[in-house]
Amino acid sequence: MQIKSPKDFWAGLMFITFGLFFVVWALYNYQMGSAVRMGPAYFPAVLGGLLTLLGTIVLSQSFAISGPRVPTINFRPLIMILAGCLVYGYSVKPLGVVVSTGLLVFMAALGGHEFKWKEVGILYVFLALFSVLVFVKGLGLPFPLWPQFLEG
Amino acid sequence: MEVLDNLMLGFSVAVSPMHLLYALIGVLLGTLIGVLPGVGPVATIAMLLPITFNLSPVAALIMLAGIYYGAQYGGSTSAILVNLPGETASVVTCLDGYQMARQGRAGPALAISAIGSFFAGCCATLIIALAAPPLAEVALKFGPAEYFSLMVLGLVAATVLAHGSLVKAIAMVVLGLLLGLIGTDVNSGVLRFTFGIPELSDGIGFAVVAMGMFGVAEIIGNLELKDKREVFTSNVKGLFPTVDDFKRSWKAILRGTALGSFLGILPGGGSILAAFGAYTLEKKMSKNPERFGKGAIEGVAAPESANNAGAQTSFIPMLTLGIPGNAVMALMIGALMIQGIAPGPQVMNEKPELFWGLIASMWIGNFFLVVLNLPLIGMWIKLLTVPYRYLYPSILVFMAIGVYSLSNNPFDLVVMAVFGLLGYICVKLECEPAPMILGFILGPLMEENLRRAMLLSRGDPFVFVSPSKPISLGFLIASAVLLVIVMLPALRKKREEVFVEDAT
Amino acid sequence: MRRAVLAAALAAASSLAFAQAWPSRPVQIVVPYAAGGPVDVSARIVAPKLQQAFGQPFVVENRPGAGGNIGADFVAKAAPDGHTLLMGAIATHAINPTLYPKIPYDPVRDFRHVTLLIQVPNVLVVNNDLPVRSVKDLIDYARKNPGKLDFASGSTGSTGHLAGELFKQLTGTYMVHIPYKGSAPATADLFAGRVHLMFDNLASALPSIRTGKVRGIAVTTLQRSGFVKDLPTLHESGLKDFDLTTWWGIMAPGKTPDAVVEQLAAELARVMQQADVRERFAAMGSDGPSVRTPREFTAFVERELRTYAGLVKRSGASVD
Q1: What does pTM read for this prediction?
Q2: Domain ranges, residue B91
Q3: What residues in C contact B407, CB-CB < 8 Å?
Q4: CB-based contact (8 Å) between B327 and chain C?
Q5: Residues of B with CB below 8 A from A92's CB?
Q6: Could you give the CA distance from residue B45 to residue B441 in angstroms, rounded to a whole number?
Q7: Residue C89, phi then psi, degrees to nearest 5
Q8: Which residue in A31, B324, C58, C315 could disulfide with C165, CB within 3.0 to 4.6 Å?
Q9: Per-residue pLDDT tens over the stretch A8-39
Q10: CB pairs under 8 A between A and B
């Protein structure tokens, strides 16, 4: 058997994985109940089963009908952008908006095609000012501006 | 004409300089927070509540209402320009609006969305003025069985959102349904799929999922393109819709307005179906549905009109019954109660100046919005000529702040990153996110109403199709018909379709 | 901005003179629910008043999740210096400790209970078509039609749900509990007659009682409410000691110094006497709280905790 449509092959696998996970987890952890008095496992188990079935259809089609290849994955933007979001989330309370905006902007810029210190620096200053003025001062979001250790 | 007298009274209240000012402040603020992702009308209104204590009830309500529908306008702007849906309705606007922007037609997209919204707003306001009380009675006819059947219809409609493989679209809907179940089960109180993480116990927020699947995934996808895209689009064609655009859109606007006005009345989640439903309707009515998802202007006009009409008519259950249809309405009830006014059927008789003043101010607010937004289009378009290397870090910062502010918890950003990754994978595998998002929204509502209906009927599965529930029966029949319509061309075209897929 | 840094530096320098210096920087009032609910609104009513009195910003911050447990836990573990406060409520400090199999904080020891702000009764309302005009009617009807009646509530484990369960226990009747997501959709089904009754929050039920959309039967508190004087209590209608009140108030982390707690309590007592604050709290259905000092508040929390431990267990409700 030869995989003719790699996109469908992987998509099918993804659906099956999700579907089986929900079925197994629901059946193992929650009560099934009956169609009349449905328990918390009922709906996810039925839907998980359906997803597994659909995944199997997609998967089997991938052997029959040819389709395009999966485009290559470029890890640099993927990792830098996702990590930037996480770093922002965990730095904004201890370090304040000014610092965490910097971290996010520089990480995001590193994920791009080119990185020029001066450009990114100017962009950072603009975005930090905008965040402070519009979100914190203007809309009154309860974000600290500066690192906590400076505020006592 | 009594209605005419009432409207005169309303306008005499609404055009007083102070009230005009508050309407203006409201729509300006609403537009701002609508454009900025994440910071939604709920949080803004909550923060402004203490300020409204010092205003008269009419002024307070006019301003808060302005924020609400201003945010609906603003939300479509960021959806069209940078593929960032701030609220449920803009997910659909992203589909064709963003494609138009990429083709250099952001101007017409924004303009038609403003014009459609204005028209829809005017119609819906008139509907409230003419028929609010009887419509509220219609809303009460919707119980768990009716909502369940409506959700089924919505889900079938969701598959129409996709323009690729039908099986994959259905699978994405089901995946969305499953992800929507994460959190506390309403019926039993059991925490499902939370893996011991307390932050998951209230489920995953819609805005977080939408921004991850659309916003983050789009940025990553753009960055890895080999050719460095200096600016977002090189050629911007025209600010305003062409005659052809109007020809294509006017029917879409009419149909969107009608559908949105009706669905907006239903307090149990009907209004979130408005934009999705309108889009599906247009795609099915269209002679060449293959244009949808590739920058069809009807695909912007219809959901935007439906959305705005629904936003206006969702005031009906609140004003006439005191039942809030969504979180924003709940806040307005809170604001009124603190002013010493109990919302409900008596408001119309006891405080006519409040009731009719609000209705008149809605029309004025919509007018402000269209007057404000049409000139702004030029500015928004300029934004697109900013080099992308400046644009995407800015979008990321706004998303991060907005998502963090939802519950002041870094965990929401983790969830956004996870859905960014999922969205990225889905793009690679040609699985479309829009059907998943609709499934995600409808999943919990559907299960909740299904199980509630079964509880109330003491386990009679025929409750959904019994002749005593004609509305529910009607929706299910419509779902079946729609399903057949959807399946037929898919089956017929299967062979051709497979070979035309482009290898981008 | 520079002033804030300066003030912060000064505060750090004088950290020995701690109690006198409070509040030395902005104070955070954590609301463990999403913005816009009554608990959130009351925080936003008192925050500007406290800001006026103490000369530092009092910032309301919403940390929703897990029925309020996330926000409560955050404050339980915050620095006990009076700069992080909580709007603690009946859910976080009386019901959840039994409802959830394990919660990460101790509702008594991890908190200083500063001031109880609001107590709101629940009110038993029935659909207009139900041939029931009094508590006695309802009991008779429920006995004659066992398992026919449905009672709605805003969520599993809410006061509305627990009140219904208590009613069932005390009267030996059987009714089916229909949980909703919030009281708005429940109210809609009550209006339409798809469910028959509900123990709703007084503030949200009041308008529909007054306009005759639903019929008020009784209140769940020991004393009648000033807002619906003609409605009897369940207690006086034969259900001895039926006493359920929704409440919330300001709390601080467990090791917060007495000086800070007393200063805050004294100021809050003054704030609550102000006419505009009283008026707004009254609009939320509160006749004014029954306990006043921090010591009384702690005793009150302990008592509520015991009451609901029994009630939740017997109702069989749990979140796990």
Answers
A1: 0.84
A2: 2-492
A3: 34, 62-65
A4: yes
A5: 400, 404, 410
A6: 23
A7: -135, 175
A8: C315
A9: 999 999 999 999 999 999 998 888 887 667 78
A10: 200
Does a structural domain hold residue B84? yes
Torsion angle of C-alpha atoms C255, C257, C262, C267, degrees rounded to 10: -90
CATH number of the structural domain C26-119+245-315? 3.40.190.150
**A140 contacts B389? CB cut-off 8 A:** no
Cα(B250)–Cα(B263) distance, integer angstroms? 20
Tell me what pLDDT residue B346 has. Answer: 76
Contact A111, B222 (CB under 8 A): no
State whether ipTM is beyond 0.85: yes
Pairing of strands C27-31, C84-89: parallel
Taking the CB of residue A140, how many other CB atoms lie within 10 A of it?
15
Instruction: Tell me if domain C26-119+245-315 and domain C121-219 are identical in fold.
Output: yes
User: Would the CB atoms of B407 and C65 count as touching at under 8 Å?
Assistant: yes
Mean pLDDT of B398-421: 90
- Chain C residue nearest residue A145, CA to CA: C1
Distance from CA of C8 to the nearest CA of A (A): 5
- Provide the 3-class DSSP secondary structure of residue B140: helix
Q: Is residue B503 part of a domain?
A: no
Closest approach of chain C CAs to the CA of B124, in angstroms? 22
Residue B504 lies in a domain: no
Chain C hits for B45, Cβ within 8 Å: 36
Residues near C26 by beta carbon (within 8 Å), at least 6 away in sequence: C56, C57, C58, C59, C83
> What does the domain layout of chain C look like in residue ranges?
26-119+245-315, 121-219
Topology classification of domain C121-219? D-Maltodextrin-Binding Protein; domain 2 (3.40.190)
Number of domains forming the structure of chain B:
1
Contact between A47 and B400 using a beta-carbon 8 Å cutoff: no
Identify residue C260 by its one-letter amino acid code.
V
Q: List, in order, residues 6 or more apart from B492 with CB less than 8 Å away.
A: none
B452 closest CA partner among B151, B182, B176, B155 = B151
For chain C, 320 residues long, give each residue's pLDDT as a single digit of tens: 445 555 554 444 444 444 457 888 889 999 998 777 788 888 988 998 999 999 888 988 888 888 889 999 999 999 999 999 999 999 999 999 998 888 889 999 999 999 999 999 999 999 999 999 999 999 999 999 988 999 999 888 889 999 999 999 899 999 999 998 888 889 889 999 999 999 998 888 888 898 888 999 999 999 899 888 999 999 999 898 899 999 999 999 999 999 999 999 999 999 999 988 888 888 888 888 888 899 999 999 999 999 999 888 887 777 66
User: Distances in Å between the alpha carbon of A73 and those of A13, B287, B366?
Assistant: 18, 38, 45
The residue among A136, B113, B71 whose CA lies nearest residue B63 is: B71
Task: Identify the bridge partners of residue C111 per DSSP, sorted by sequence position.
Answer: C253
